[in-house]
Amino acid sequence: MRNILYSVLLLVALVSCNTHKKLTIKEPKKPVMNGPDTLVTPSGLRYVILKHTGGSEKPKNGDKVSVHYRGKLADGTEFDNSFKRGEPFEFQLGMGKVIKGWDEGIALLGVGDSAMLIIPPSLGYGDRNIGGIPANSTLYFEVTLVKIKEPVFTTEYHWQNQPEHTTASGLKYYVVKEGTGIQAYSGADVKVHYTGYLNDGKIFDSSVLREEPIEFKVGVGMVISGWDEGILLMRQGAKYRFIIPANLAYGDQEVGGGLIPAGSTLTFDCELVSVK
Fold first, then answer.
1. Does the annotation count 185 as an active-site position?
2. 2-149 and 165-275 have identical folds
3. How far is CA 111 from CA 19, 63, 84, 115, 147, in A?
4. CB contact set of 201 (below 8 Å; sequence gap of 6+)
5. Is 99 noted as a catalytic residue in this protein?
């Protein structure tokens, strides 16, 4: 699912596991995809309201939403279906975590509403081939908004009065809180909460906002080298701020269609939640 819907994976292999309670929501009946009930937004998104509950609550940018969906191509080929899995997809609305057509379309719905979103390539994957989705595909999503959860906010670490440390590689870090648990070691399975900032202070990714730490094996190249080096400095329970130069991050690569510009120095507030 995440490989289909997330528009960018910022850290290599930092994939966390969903543990949401399974819901028993039936798939909506197949709707007419064009007709008098089809509405069009200024961006070119077409949609048909299949079910309206009468509720007035709609999600806002930053809210975490749970959505059941079935995705098809124009020829009727189904490429993904959360109803079959019995588990809705969760994401933070309006933050670029999904394709533009989803960010726009889900914001039109209230809890319990169902709709058909007809997403042109410009609001989908454009000229890219994504899994079983050919380039320049119009996407048809039958969606049901299951739940809205108020947003969680990040708190920037108070690092200003802490001494700056620099490693031989050029990684800079500040110890905001020292841990008292086990020291991270190469090959250990770790859980880390993090918030990533660009030079202008803009957040580009945050496990805190998702309320779910990431899990990975440290020191074996599953993440950017600045993370491998930095996390190995920490004990369980520690909170560090890392300043990671481009050569220890994504180098001259642009990530996420410009979300992280080429040559970016990245700042991460990291908490080492567990070491196993």
1. no
2. yes
3. 21, 13, 20, 12, 6
4. none
5. yes
Other CB atoms within a 10 A radius of the CB of residue 221 amount to 11
Q: Establish whether 37 is a catalytic residue.
A: no
Residues near 42 by beta carbon (within 8 Å), at least 6 away in sequence = none
**What tokens appear for 255 in the block?**
């990530």
CA distance linking residue 126 with residue 73, whole number of Å = 14
CATH architecture of 2-149: Roll (3.10)
Q: Which of 4, 47, 99, 148 is catalytic?
A: 99
- In the set 47, 91, 125, 204, the catalytic residue is 125
Q: Give the dihedral sign, CA 164/169/170/176.
A: negative
* Amino acid at residue number 224: I
Q: Compute the average pLDDT of residues 157-168.
A: 96
Looking at domain 165-275, its CATH architecture is Roll (3.10)
Residue of 80, 113, 228, 269 marked active site: 80
User: What is the distance, to the nearest Å, from the Cα of residue 190 to the centroid of all Cα atoms in its chain?
Assistant: 19
Place of tokens 């180098």: 251
Residue 276's nearest CA partner among 229, 220, 225, 216 is 216
Give pLDDT tens digits for 211-259: 889 999 999 999 999 999 999 999 999 999 999 999 999 999 999 878 9
